[in-house]
Amino acid sequence: MLETSATPLVWIAMFGCIPFVLAMFALLPPRRAVLVSFLVAWLFLPVAKFDLQGLPDYTKMSATCAGVLLAIIIFDIEHLLSLSYAPKWVDFPMIVWCLCPLATAISNQPDLTYHDGLAYVFDRLVSWGLPYLIGRLYLSNRGDYATSPSRLHRRPALSSPVRL
Questions:
Q1: pTM for the full model?
Q2: Using N-to-C axis directions, what is the helix angle for 130-138 and 60-75, rounded to 10°?
Q3: I need a labelling partner for 107 at 20 to 30 A (CA). Which of 23, 67, 89, 148 fits?
Q4: What are the CB-based long-range contacts (under 8 Å, 24+) for 14-17?
Q5: 46-60: pLDDT as tens digits
């Protein structure tokens, strides 16, 4: 189901996100493509939600994550398979944040079931865990910050919209 206020432009934008992300990975280096994909999606995709049966809601974050994961599999599978990411202690709060709905469902039985808890965990993994994991994969070492948005102040042509 789709929100009742959706226009054809919402459909085009939401389902055009994945081809846009694939094009970014084809044209840019993977780190920069990840940054551009998430920033453009967050800034320009509409706040719309498609309720899909058996899947998390299709929102701008889930569309971006799906596109980025598909692009990583197609264009940069070596980086994903190299296992350059190993969980560290700083990842513990994100793991707890993603698993909290399961603990809530268990403590609120019989009103909530394990199925409800797992559904909320899956939704939180898509909304928070995947962007975090992608960021840790591509922005985890010091050399990766050369393409980060914090360095826009050194590129006046790129930062002029930000400064307005």
A1: 0.76
A2: 40
A3: 89
A4: 14/45, 14/46, 14/48, 14/50, 14/58, 14/60, 14/63, 15/63, 17/41, 17/45, 17/60, 17/63, 17/64, 17/67
A5: 998 888 787 778 889
